[in-house]
Design a protein that fits this description.
- This protein has about 400 residues and is of the alpha/beta class.
- Helices cover about 45% and strands about 15% of the residues.
- Strands 3-2-1-4-5-6-7 form a seven-stranded parallel β-sheet, sandwiched between helices. It has a six-stranded parallel β-sheet with strand order 12-9-8-13-14-15, sandwiched between helices. A two-stranded antiparallel ribbon has the order 10-11.
- Strand 14, helix 13 and strand 15 form a beta-alpha-beta unit.
- Helix 5 packs across helix 6.
- About 45% of the residues are buried.
Length: about 400
């Protein structure tokens, strides 16, 4: 590997089309070719990343090799060397006196406890080998920054690009203002690729709908999320002339939007006004979402595809990222984001949809007004990256 390339790491794979959208948009900002270290290289080669100036490299997995896993576990314990796991994982881009920029594709990685050890170790390891690190496009729960090990880790990054103001404010409050920048998620700049519309698509009358296992896992009342979605679809079919397009945005085996979507489709397929879309690349899915009249979504990057296409959008969220993005776009997240944890009655989403329907024209006009400047702010991240790359 050449040191004149920029390394992108902590990428989980393009089967999560939000991850794909981030890398796709980020690669277009870079001043030099990228090496993408990925957990799922075959996925990345299947979708839009294969056409970019980006070398896709499969990271090494300790978990898949019992002997290697045992060896490194023992070594880590005896030698007090937690970074050994990451040296094995990222061997393709490790080496003494490396002089490159390594970008941790932030997203919401820091929102998950099972990711924290790997994030901290990789950041520290890359600095030991002489590289600079950047945490890019991140959302971080403010409470997390009160933990000393996380605060210390954040100070190790040479630059942090927060994608929404809640995270930016929390990082500044934690003493990181000098190295922290606020730029919207790069996926607001994602290209739109339009495929032929499927049979049953009603031009001008489609409501796009996305649901994910993640929001189901975060519900407070068991089963309430699916009850709400079913009640919502029934209400739409009974009270409007809208049709519903069920749109997946993550298709991983253990986290597949197509499972709840399949259940919803089976319940309403007989009406002839509900269709489900098949898997596609992030730009292609954005092409469908952009042609919806309104959109209700759970996956952050499905809603970013809608926002950036000026489609009136309601978010069913579960974390700081949804609230922060809505707040930056509209001045508040109230009504624009429905935390899944607040769903208590099966009619809750119906009320939210009625609000969206009443605000449809105003919201579309607002998005058309603010989106050009918002996308300019997203594009401004390029200058930060170029400056860091020159220093590296």
């Amino acid at each position: 590997m050449k040191d004149d390339k920029i390394v992108l790491y902590m990428h989980a794979g393009s089967g999560n089309h939000g991850c794909e959208a981030i890398v796709n948009s980020l690669c277009r900002m870079l001043p030099k070719p990228a090496i993408l270290i990925t957990n799922r290289a075959a996925e990345d080669a299947r979708y839009s990343l294969r056409d970019l100036r980006c070398e896709i490299v499969q990271e090494r997995s300790i978990e898949k090799n019992v002997l290697v896993h045992t060896w490194y576990y023992v070594w880590r314990m005896l030698m007090k060397d937690p970074e050994s796991f990451m040296r094995y994982r990222y061997r393709a881009v490790c080496g003494k006196n490396a002089r490159r920029l390594n970008i941790s594709i932030g997203g919401d990685n820091y929102c998950y406890d099972n990711m924290l050890d790997r994030l901290i170790c990789s950041n520290r390891m890359f600095h030991r080998q002489g590289s600079k690190t950047m945490l890019f496009g991140c959302s971080v729960e403010p409470e997390l920054l009160k933990r000393p090990e996380i605060a210390e880790d954040m100070k190790r990054y040479d630059a942090i690009v927060a994608r929404e103001s809640i995270t930016y404010g929390a990082l500044c409050k934690a003493g990181l203002k000098e190295r922290t920048f606020l730029c919207p998620d790069p996926a607001f700049l994602l290209e739109t690729k339009e495929l032929p519309l499927p049979g049953g698509w009603a031009e001008g009358k489609m409501l796009g709908l996305n649901i994910s296992p993640m929001i189901v896992e975060n519900e407070k009342t068991p089963g309430i999320t699916m009850e709400n979605y079913k009640a919502l679809i029934a209400h739409i079919l009974e009270t409007t002339d809208l049709h519903v397009a069920l749109i997946p945005h993550v298709i991983w085996e253990n986290n597949d939007d197509r499972r709840p979507i399949g259940e919803l489709y089976e319940a309403f397929a007989h009406t002839g006004r509900v269709l489900k879309l098949e898997d596609a690349s992030a730009p292609e899915l954005k092409g469908y979402i952009a042609r919806c009249r309104m959109f209700i979504g759970a996956r952050t990057h499905a809603t970013i595809a809608a926002y950036s296409s000026c489609v009136p959008t309601l978010v069913v969220g579960y974390s700081v990222k949804a609230q922060g993005i809505a707040q930056d776009l509209f001045g508040t997240s109230d009504d624009y984001v429905i935390p899944v944890q607040t769903l208590a009655k099966k009619e809750d989403l119906i009320g939210a949809f009625e609000w969206l329907k009443g605000q449809e024209n105003r919201m579309r006009l607002h998005l058309e007004t603010v989106m050009p400047e918002y996308q300019k702010k997203a594009a401004a991240a390029q200058e930060i990256i170029w400056k860091m790359a020159d220093q590296g």
